[in-house]
Design a protein that fits this description.
The structure holds 2 protein chains of 2 kinds. By secondary structure, chain A is mainly α. Helix content of chain A is 55%, strand content 0%. In chain A, helix 4 (88-100) crosses helix 8. By secondary structure, chain B is of the alpha/beta class. Chain B is built from 12 helices and 21 strands. In chain B, helix 1 runs parallel beside helix 6 (207-213) and helix 1 runs parallel beside helix 12. Classes of the chains: A mainly alpha, B alpha/beta. Chains A and B meet through helix 1, helix 2, helix 4, helix 5 and helix 7 of A and helix 2, helix 4, helix 6, helix 8 and helix 9 of B.
């Protein structure tokens, strides 16, 4: 390949001979190929200890009002049909409080105020002038839909919270069964298949 | 030549429970970050006999801990549990790894060499020496051998990939087999939550064990917050002589402790968001005014197609082919299955409507477009010392995204899709190719577009002139002696393909320069 050099680059090697010239000025335009020797096999390494339980952060403690609002929102995001989740609200609240522990602090701290705002906002925007926890499931959906239709920060916040609750709902094994998703079983079968065909995985 | 300090090396991995008191260590090179760039530098320097310490903010998780559940993956492997955003409009979801192995643990494993036109542009416009296709070839070859880059075995490819390929071939589009860092991948399709079979040769199972094998030490759970500097030397530049890190203990009652590392060379490899953030916090390396600027992200938009026949997208490898028909125009298309949790998270639906969509998960193909962007965003220090990322997509890029989505919809319909859902809020699903022009009938509001990005790059760009770049052509910071950068931030611009191999190749150049071999 024909190299193209600017005038300044051609002058750089000359400047490079001056004492104290910065490193970039000491480069020559015509570099030799990179000196790469043959690839040496690396010595074996030990498997470090892995303890995911020790790495878990304690769940965020949510207040009674926040829990109540979350329960109402969880019901609105779930379908009317029974997914087979024994305690939908309990599962969702537990999931959100565990997840919130991993959110960046400003976002984690915003969760409570956002839930508080959602609790009272139906009094202003409807569809029924009641607090969130007094709305029926259909009314709650209608309320959320109104907020999702507003562009900007409101949609961003509501979409984020809706997403977190939907994540919780569709992480439940019963929801997976209801939609015919069995990735964990498939994945285990594939891991076994690979091990049988090609041996154990890499050390880490 | 083996350094004297290397004789004291232990070649092991330390975690927060191994670091219960303040500690100071000395080595030849300290590397901050263990992703594609950091791990490459670590392996090369350790192999050359230098005493190397790698500091990683995230935790250590190995192959045995990876599974299909989303909570553990997102909470433990992703930065900010996947909630990082670049402020637009449209706001862009940024996904980056934060664990030993960095983003390579959670990426799709695509290993494309930097396109020749991009390398030639860097040579021509930025004046970078030895980055032409011929000069880079031996670097790519070495790395590809080390991380087993190869096309996917046919038995591991899923039906979703096949359908997209079929649609593209019916339209006469160029489809190419992906080159991935994998060893006997059987297609478990869990790449983005950590490979549970060990097939994906992320840094976690390739370069980092190699570095440790040659004596490098890895310190997980250590967030570097300060650089240790010595006053200006004879050339008027300060010299980086180490770093100071805070040990991150998940137990809030645990006592605070620090790890101080003194070294002849300090290599930052924290990615295109965290590296400029660290330097901005120190007030360093911004004489050019380019630090934290020139952010490119390769915006991604996903579209979902529903088919009558079962597809079962969760069976088969994450991505085996890409449509490269429009690569030269800056658009790439490929499948990327979304598990139900993520699908539910992204679709702005509620209740029964959401469930109706979720029930069709086994009839769904999810694919995306990647755009080589012309927009440049910025990284600044925001409140609480966190990164404030701004990225306001240009009109041209917005058009490119819409064009890419229209092309993708065309491919879907050619493959036999009955319905296509585009990531534009309020847009009704498309039910035939005749409806595709609907996309262009009304101007799409930026706030209504859902964009994600996995490839932030360019915020400490490389260049010959200190007045217009942050690092020199080999990754050394212009204004600070002994300080190097080896991550996506040094790329002089977007490259239009998955950047892992490019990052590794540039990092390998940096490592060769550090050890004085080149």
């Amino acid at each position: 390949m024909k190299a193209v050099y600017t005038g300044q680059q051609l002058l750089l090697p000359l400047l490079g001979v001056l004492p104290g010239a910065p490193a970039e000025r000491r480069q020559r335009p015509g570099l030799p190929p990179p000196p790469l020797g043959p690839i040496r096999p690396a010595p074996p390494v030990a498997r470090p200890l892995v303890d995911i339980e020790r790495r878990r952060r304690p769940p965020v403690v949510l207040g009674t009002r926040a829990r109540r609002s979350l329960g109402v929102l969880a019901r609105a995001i779930a379908p009317d049909a029974d997914l087979g989740i024994a305690d939908l609200e309990g599962w969702t609240i537990c999931y959100v409080s565990r997840f919130a522990a991993y959110l960046p602090p400003p976002l984690g701290r915003a969760l409570g105020p956002v839930l508080a705002a959602l609790e009272w906002l139906p009094l202003v925007v409807g569809p029924r002038r009641r607090r969130l926890s007094r709305l029926s499931r259909a009314e709650c959906r209608s309320f959320l839909q109104r907020l999702l239709d507003v562009r900007g920060l409101v949609r961003e916040a509501v979409h984020g919270l809706r997403g977190l609750l939907a994540l919780a709902l569709y992480e439940h094994p019963a929801a997976h069964r209801a939609i015919g998703y069995a990735a964990q079983r498939y994945l285990q079968a594939k891991a076994r298949e690979r091990q049988q065909r090609f041996g154990a995985p890499e050390p880490w | 030549m083996v350094s004297e300090l290397a004789a004291e090396r232990t070649g092991r991995l330390y975690q927060f429970w191994d670091l219960m008191t303040d500690r100071t260590i000395e080595c030849d090179a300290v590397i901050v970050g263990s992703g594609a760039g950091g791990a490459t530098v670590a392996a090369e320097l350790a192999e050359a006999g230098l005493a190397v310490a790698v500091l990683e903010e995230g935790g250590f998780y190995d192959t045995r801990t990876f599974h299909a559940g989303l909570f553990d993956a997102v909470a433990h492997l992703y930065r900010d549990a996947g909630t990082e955003r670049a402020v637009g409009p449209p706001n862009v979801m940024l996904f980056q790894g934060r664990c030993v192995g960095g983003s390579t643990v959670i990426n799709g494993g695509m290993c494309w060499r930097t396109p020749a036109r991009v390398l030639e542009r860097w040579t021509r416009e930025r004046g970078l020496p030895a980055v032409g296709p011929e000069a880079m070839q031996p670097l790519f070859e070495r790395l590809e051998a080390l991380i087993h880059v190869a096309p996917q075995e046919p038995g591991s490819i899923g039906m979703d990939d096949g359908l997209l390929r079929l649609g593209a071939e019916r339209l006469g589009y160029k489809v190419v087999a992906n080159r991935r860092n994998q060893l006997h991948c059987v297609g478990s399709n869990n790449c983005v939550f950590g490979c549970p079979t060990g097939a994906k040769q992320s840094m976690l199972v390739s370069m980092l064990p190699r570095a440790v094998g040659f004596g490098a030490d890895i310190y997980a759970d250590c967030r570097v917050e300060r650089l240790v500097l010595e006053r200006a030397g004879p050339d008027g530049r300060p010299r980086a002589v180490g770093v100071q890190a805070r040990v991150l203990d998940p137990d809030p009652r645990a006592p605070a402790r620090t790890l101080t590392v003194r070294a002849r060379h300090v290599v930052l490899a924290c990615g295109a968001i965290q590296t400029p953030l660290l330097l901005l916090g120190e007030g360093l390396a911004n004489g050019s005014g380019q630090l934290g600027r020139n952010l490119a992200v390769h915006p991604n938009a996903k579209a979902i197609a529903l088919f009558d026949e079962p597809v079962v997208g969760w069976q088969g490898v994450h991505q085996a082919h890409q449509i490269h028909e429009f690569l030269e125009e800056g658009i790439v298309m490929a499948v990327a299955f979304l598990p139900p949790q993520l699908l539910a998270l992204t679709q702005p639906l509620l209740g029964n409507a959401l469930f109706e969509l979720m029930r069709q998960i086994n009839h769904m193909v999810c694919a995306g477009i990647l755009v080589e962007d012309t927009t440049t965003g910025t990284v600044r220090r925001g409140p609480f010392g966190r990164a404030a990322v701004r990225y306001r997509m240009s009109d041209y890029d917005l058009e490119q995204v819409l064009r890419g989505l229209a092309l993708l919809a065309e491919v879907y319909f050619a493959a036999g899709a009955r319905e296509v859902l585009l990531p534009i809020y309020g847009l009704e699903p498309l039910r035939s190719p005749d409806e595709i022009p609907r996309l262009f009938r009304h101007p799409v509001h930026r706030h209504d577009l859902e964009i994600a990005a996995f490839h932030p790059l360019g915020t400490c760009r490389m260049g010959v002139h200190p007045g217009s770049s942050v690092v020199d052509p080999f990754g050394q910071v212009h204004e600070v002696a002994g300080l190097w950068i080896a991550d996506a931030s040094v790329l002089p611009g977007p490259i239009g393909v998955n950047p892992m191999l490019t990052i590794m190749a540039l990092a390998l150049r940096t490592a060769l320069r550090i050890r004085g071999a080149w």
